[in-house]
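Forum: Protein Structure Q&A
Topic: Joint prediction for protein chains with partners

I've read a bunch of threads here and the consensus seems to be that you should model interacting components together rather than docking separate models afterwards. I'd like to see that in practice. Below is the full input, 434 residues plus whatever partners are listed. Could one of the regulars post the assembled result?
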Amino acid sequence: MTVTARQQGLARCLSCGKLCRMPEPQAKHRAHCPRCNRAVSYRQNASLTYSWALTIAAIALLVPANMLPILTVVSFGQGDPDTIMSGVIKLWESQLQAIAAVVFIASVAVPVAKLVVMLLLMVVVQFKLPLSKQQCTLLYRFIHFIGRWSMLDLFMISILVTVVHMGNIANVESGPAALAFGAVVVLTMLAADYFDPRLLWDLEHE
Amino acid sequence: MPCGAAEGILLYNNPMTEYSTFARDSLLACPDCDLLLQVDSVPAGSECHCPRCDALVHGENTYRNDVHLAAAISGLLLFIPAVTAPVLKFTMVGQWGSNSLLSGVWRLWTESEQLLALLVLLCSVLAPFFHLLLSFGIALVLRFSRLPKTFPDWLKWHHWMQGWSMLEVYAMGIIVAYVKMLDDGDVFVGNGTYCLIGVLLSLILCNQFFREEFAWQRWEQRQQELQT
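Posted by a regular:
Agreed with the consensus. Here's the joint model:
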């Protein structure tokens, strides 16, 4: 038989991990962790609402991030703006397949995979779908782990625009997609932070 | 190592009959699935995983303060050259260009990409710096057992900085940028990169050797001392 902390009136503090005794449900005051004094609740407050809002915003921004130019390389007055995908294709065509794969994974595959997984997890909780909780938890840990690697493209842009800044000879400029892409990365990281994986396991006890 | 009777660790999950005002530390809730676990003793140097969802519920209980402190100091010493010295140098038909972490941020700022500049500044400079600084402070006060009243805030900020510090991703960005520029001219690795590798190693050591739970328990002891 499995017993959760919540069934026993206990909650884990999100900040320090201390197991706290919760007050009776009718109590007016909010419970605070005796160790770190942060407000404690059974589950992350409004977890699903925040996750939905942040994920939908990220999906909307994914469109300009991929359609608009992210980088323009001008060499001796010649050069076209590149979107994320056309940059990957150019790398692939210039025999840099390994780097093309790295950029593709970090800038295209990871953000899309994160959003798809977030949607899946939220749909599972929202509509109480009978999916394997172990596998959903694995997916949740996976997106938490890979989320930060999407910043790769932005760091690379910051390096390239600074190093290749030589007036008429060669110049690299960032495009409007860079900001949209940065917003996608931040929003998906926050969405994953707000999602409480314990909501998945709560379905087992209903 | 999964927890279970086979490893000589008594672990069971049963309804409790008695509580103290706040739960004892042998009683834990899994952070990922909320399963209530009783962990009676974990041998030094081993970890404890949730039997239901395999989350780490109890990390290693050995804390090496000396390594933590040494790593934080080395990281801080290398930090200023790491963000100001050139990371990559590039030459093309007699023209030179180079970048450092800070000049990269400044270039984005002057290119009217202020928000992007702030994001890059946070993830590649501010978060790693405050992560190291707070690691240093935490290791120091733990060493001399003089925890200040604001210690819980230190730990919370340390945790937050840890999440936004992305120097390892920046290092990967250097490699990608290096290979991208190889075709068009000569690229050289600057001193900033070597310092950056040092800072990165210090950060990894700090993360490997710091035990947040240990720090929280020391704070709890301090709270009890203050009350008596």
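Chain A has two domains: 1-42, 46-205.
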